[in-house]
């Protein structure tokens, strides 16, 4: 938009007594921005300085990391002792790790934060697998609604299509003597209080989901009922969290000499599941505990520090929480995971555009920046593009910003990158708090098992696609006193298809128990 239009519009607003209009005038909805000539030539911060000042708000120092690790370990122990704690520490009822020799074909449904996948997974018995899969974005209409079975019916229809395409005979023989019944492992990525390997009640929704009438319900039964209504030849035999799936899948594929300790997800949401000594889970009485004395525990670490003793907070974090479907919950996740990072950046950029003292986007009116005005208008893939831009003129960043917000100068791109980097770095360092705390709590570095290496399976868009996220997380691990140089013995391994393969492995465990 030409400057002339702002000038005349501004004059209309302010009348003859208005100060001289110069390059500093920008349109801002109904408000014109005016800079006095003194501010222009003298003390005004450059855009880069403004960005650096805001970036500082997202710093999370080494001291902060260490303090938060102590708090995290404390809250992990509380969760092992009592129900309903900040870190829930939910037993998965899986009491052994795969050896890599597992065999068989199982169906899996992976209901994630953004997509649903249905797979048929064949475990080959040598740490490898083959997989056929169908994937679809979850329609937003089913994420927040008042129909408790809507989402599950939609999933069942999707599975029906999958069977039609890949196993048509199973549908024609259903209900006859020749019927082939599939065992299905269900990966469900929200906090569930498991009652057994094949049942569990939803504790709360996260990642923007909010379907009435499901909290407290058995998630397995809801999916099984939806299959039964469509007469699908499927038995839901196992229910797992996606982090449990990642841990199982990594343990299945890892070399036999290595002990996998943790499965973690850094994607739309964040969470981790680890191998705990059953004797330490004092809140669990009279339950199935297994022969090996271990239990995979789903921490639900996204809700760490609900009391806000250790987490950093900016005004942008507060805005996100207040406008979320679960205010006061998942405060850790809201500072780490992909669902929220782009929104934090959007809020910062919006505040810059609205600040009369800041020169950004050459005065283009905010009314023209549709994505910037829309809640959730920027996502973390936008930040990944900026972070990966090594061009001297920031041309890649400028193209991305142009696509998502509007024409950006070098200075605009530079400022947005500085802030985006700070938000991503804080997320990775917070991620290190969780990973580090599990390492400290389990003492796995000290035990020297598995050639002295600590093996961690990870999945999710941030750890996989955000440049430097894993490196930043590892560097912060080295700052934790109990880890230090031991950081070099920690292997963080991306475990693709963890949820699907993990669900198949869980169905395999369930089959052995029958
Ligand atoms: C959920 C967890 C899940 C994580 C990663 C969180 O929002 O509460 O159950 O494991 O996202 O998908």
Automatic annotation (TrEMBL):
<comment type="similarity">
    <text>Belongs to the hexokinase family.</text>
</comment>
<feature type="domain" description="Hexokinase C-terminal">
    <location>
        <begin position="262"/>
        <end position="508"/>
    </location>
</feature>
<keyword id="KW-0808">Transferase</keyword>
<protein>
    <recommendedName>
        <fullName>Phosphotransferase</fullName>
        <ecNumber>2.7.1.-</ecNumber>
    </recommendedName>
</protein>
<dbReference type="GO" id="GO:0005536">
    <property type="term" value="F:D-glucose binding"/>
</dbReference>
<dbReference type="InterPro" id="IPR022672">
    <property type="entry name" value="Hexokinase_N"/>
</dbReference>
<keyword id="KW-0418">Kinase</keyword>
<dbReference type="GO" id="GO:0004340">
    <property type="term" value="F:glucokinase activity"/>
</dbReference>
<keyword id="KW-0067">ATP-binding</keyword>
<keyword id="KW-0324">Glycolysis</keyword>
<dbReference type="GO" id="GO:0001678">
    <property type="term" value="P:intracellular glucose homeostasis"/>
</dbReference>
<dbReference type="InterPro" id="IPR022673">
    <property type="entry name" value="Hexokinase_C"/>
</dbReference>
<dbReference type="GO" id="GO:0005524">
    <property type="term" value="F:ATP binding"/>
</dbReference>
<dbReference type="GO" id="GO:0006096">
    <property type="term" value="P:glycolytic process"/>
</dbReference>
<dbReference type="GO" id="GO:0005739">
    <property type="term" value="C:mitochondrion"/>
</dbReference>
<feature type="domain" description="Hexokinase N-terminal">
    <location>
        <begin position="52"/>
        <end position="252"/>
    </location>
</feature>
<dbReference type="InterPro" id="IPR001312">
    <property type="entry name" value="Hexokinase"/>
</dbReference>
<dbReference type="Pfam" id="PF03727">
    <property type="entry name" value="Hexokinase_2"/>
</dbReference>
<keyword id="KW-0547">Nucleotide-binding</keyword>
<dbReference type="Pfam" id="PF00349">
    <property type="entry name" value="Hexokinase_1"/>
</dbReference>
<dbReference type="GO" id="GO:0005829">
    <property type="term" value="C:cytosol"/>
</dbReference>
<dbReference type="GO" id="GO:0008865">
    <property type="term" value="F:fructokinase activity"/>
</dbReference>
<dbReference type="GO" id="GO:0006006">
    <property type="term" value="P:glucose metabolic process"/>
</dbReference>
<dbReference type="InterPro" id="IPR043129">
    <property type="entry name" value="ATPase_NBD"/>
</dbReference>
């Amino acid at each position: 938009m030409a400057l002339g239009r702002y000038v005349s519009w501004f004059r209309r607003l302010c009348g003859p007594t208005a100060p001289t209009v110069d390059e500093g005038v920008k349109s801002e909805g109904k408000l014109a921005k005016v800079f006095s000539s003194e501010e222009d030539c003298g003390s005004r911060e450059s855009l880069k300085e403004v960005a650096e000042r805001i970036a500082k708000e997202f710093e999370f120092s080494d001291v902060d990391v260490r303090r938060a690790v102590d708090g995290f370990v404390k809250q992990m122990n509380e969760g092992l002792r009592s129900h309903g704690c900040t870190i829930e520490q939910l037993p998965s009822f899986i009491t052994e790790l795969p050896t890599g020799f597992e065999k068989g074909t199982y169906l899996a449904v992976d209901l994630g934060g953004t997509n649903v996948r249905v797979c048929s997974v064949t475990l080959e018995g040598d740490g490898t697998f083959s997989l056929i899969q169908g994937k679809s974005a979850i329609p937003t209409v089913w994420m927040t609604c008042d129909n408790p079975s809507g989402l599950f019916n939609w999933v069942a229809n999707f599975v029906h299509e999958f069977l039609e395409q890949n196993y048509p005979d199973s549908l024609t023989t259903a209900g006859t003597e020749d019927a082939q019944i599939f065992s299905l492992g269900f990966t469900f990525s929200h906090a569930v209080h498991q009652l057994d390997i094949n049942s569990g009640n939803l504790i709360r929704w996260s990642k923007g989901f909010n379907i009435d009438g499901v909290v407290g319900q058995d998630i397995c039964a809801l999916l099984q009922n939806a299959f039964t209504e469509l007469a699908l030849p499927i038995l839901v035999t196992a229910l797992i969290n996606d982090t449990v799936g990642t841990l199982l899948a990594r343990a299945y594929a890892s070399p036999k000499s290595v002990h996998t300790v943790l499965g973690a997800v850094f994607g739309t949401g964040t969470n981790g599941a680890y191998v705990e000594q059953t004797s330490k889970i004092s809140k669990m009485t009279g339950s199935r505990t297994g022969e090996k004395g271990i239990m995979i525990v789903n921490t639900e670490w996204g809700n760490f520090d609900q009391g806000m003793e250790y987490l950093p907070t900016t005004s942008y974090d507060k805005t996100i929480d207040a406008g979320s479907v679960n205010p006061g919950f998942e405060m850790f996740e809201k500072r780490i995971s992909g669902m929220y990072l782009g929104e934090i950046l959007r809020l910062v950029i919006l505040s810059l555009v609205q600040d009369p003292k800041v020169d950004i986007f050459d005065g283009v009116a905010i009314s023209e920046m549709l994505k910037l005005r829309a809640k959730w208008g920027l996502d973390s893939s936008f930040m990944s593009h900026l972070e990966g831009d090594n061009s001297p003129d920031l041309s890649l960043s400028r193209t991305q910003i142009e696509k998502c917000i509007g024409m950006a100068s070098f200075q605009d791109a530079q400022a947005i990158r500085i802030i985006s980097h700070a938000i991503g770095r804080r997320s990775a360092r917070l991620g290190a708090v969780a990973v580090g705390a599990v390492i400290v709590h389990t003492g796995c570095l000290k035990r020297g098992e598995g050639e002295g290496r600590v093996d961690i399976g990870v999945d999710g868009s941030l750890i996989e696609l955000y440049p430097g996220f894993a490196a930043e997380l590892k560097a912060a691990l080295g700052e934790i006193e109990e880890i230090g140089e031991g950081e070099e013995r920690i292997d963080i391994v991306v475990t693709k298809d963890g949820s699907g393969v993990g669900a198949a492995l869980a169905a395999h465990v369930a089959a052995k128990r029958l």
